[in-house]
Every structure is written in C-alpha cells, then in structure tokens.
Amino acid sequence: MTAPEEPGTGPVIRDNRRIDPVTGQPRRGKHAASQPAGTSGAGRPGAPGSARQRDGEAAARVPADEASPAESAAAAAPAPAAAPKAAPADPAASQLQRQLAERTADLQRLQAEYANYRKRVDRDRATVREHAVAGALSELLPVLDAIGQAREHGELSGGFKSVADSLQAAVTKLGLVSYGQRGDAFDPKIHEALTHTYSPDVTEDTCVEIFQPGYKVGERILRPARVAVAAPTTGLDESDDSGWPSGEENN
Known about the structure:
Layout (H helix, E strand, L loop, with lengths): L11 E3 L2 E3 L31 H10 L8 H8 L14 H62 L5 H16 L2 E4 L11 E9 L6 E7 L1 E4 L2 E4 L1 E8 L14 H4 L1
Parallel strand pairs: 4-8
Antiparallel strand pairs: 1-2, 3-6, 5-8, 6-7
C-alpha cells in the first residue's frame, strides 16, 4: 500500500484517479505509459478507438462498387417484356376503309363528269351563239349586197356612206367575213359556179368573174360566192362537140 503524500505537495486521489494538484488533470500512472498511443481515450464517445469511430471505419471499408438497396432492387427487377404483336385488323375499321375508298372513287368520277359537263356546256353555248349570229347576219346579206353595188357605181357618198361604213364595221366585229376575188382557185365547197368557160390563160379551174361575194362566220358558210369559172383549154377543144352524138348518127 502506497503511503499518502503530504497535503499540498502530492497528487490528490479522487474516484480512484490521481489528480495533479497543479494542473487539475488526471495524472498518468505507471500503467498509462504501457497503453498504445491513441487508445487512452477509447472509453470516451467520439474519441479515437470508440464504438462510433469503429462503426465509421467499418462503413468506410465497404467497397465503393457495392450498390445501394434501391440500386440492388432496380438491378434485381425483371427486364421489361417485349411489345405485344399487333392485334388483327378490326372488321369495323376495314369496312370503314373500304367505304372511304368507294366514296373517294365516286367523288373522282363525279369531278370528271362535272369537268366534261362544263366543256360540253361551253361548246354548246359557243355553238348556239354562232347560230344566232349567223341567223342575224344572214338577214343582212341583201343590205350588204346593195351597199356593195352602190360603192361600185360610185353612189355611196355623204351620210349614206357613214351609215354603210358603220354597218360594215359592226358585222365585221361579229365575225362576218367576205370572200371571193377574181383569180381565186375554184372550190366547189365555197363557190357556186353560175357559168363555165375555157381559157388558155389559166392552168386550173379559176374564178374569172364574181357575181356575188361569199360570206362566212368562222368555218360556217352563210352564202357561197357566186362566180364564173374558166377551165384550161388543154385536152378537149372548147368548140368540139364530138362528145355528144349528132342527130344524123342517131337516125
């Protein structure tokens, strides 16, 4: 047993620990020097070597690649199932598509018929207009003939000449065209031959005299030109009547 130290000169024993009277700190005994460094405060919370520190060190020793519980659960979850195959076509949808195709075809056919109808109406309208104009102009042809004769004889003058010129401009605006000149080739489609002769001056059937000019509107002939036609003299002589049998031969 250790002898007690004198008061004020030695350490004070408190709770079985020696307290330094100068510093007030526990004095290290002879066994304190034998403890490893860093283990003297193992019993204090937060001190080196305490249980909390050991738990932190254990947590630090967990591998860095170890997944968290949430990540582990996500990894363990099964892969998403493949998309299901397309269901067979709905009969109602197929029927609607068929009806749509039929209605589209009907609409296209109706549009084509309407386009043809418009063309036919426009053509008929033009034809009706042409007939109406031709009918009105046909009634004016005798007046135009009288004006033409007065102009040839020099009787077209004064106010009458102004009226005649205005009428001529109006009918020309409506599409009336006068044709027929001396020297034109004879065309039975647009000419009416009133006389027929032979002439050595022509090489084909030619209009040598115009009795009345012809009139047309577009391709419609209102009146053919009335002309005298001369044929070339090559071939049959114009004075030869051998083509017809004589009265003596018939007897």
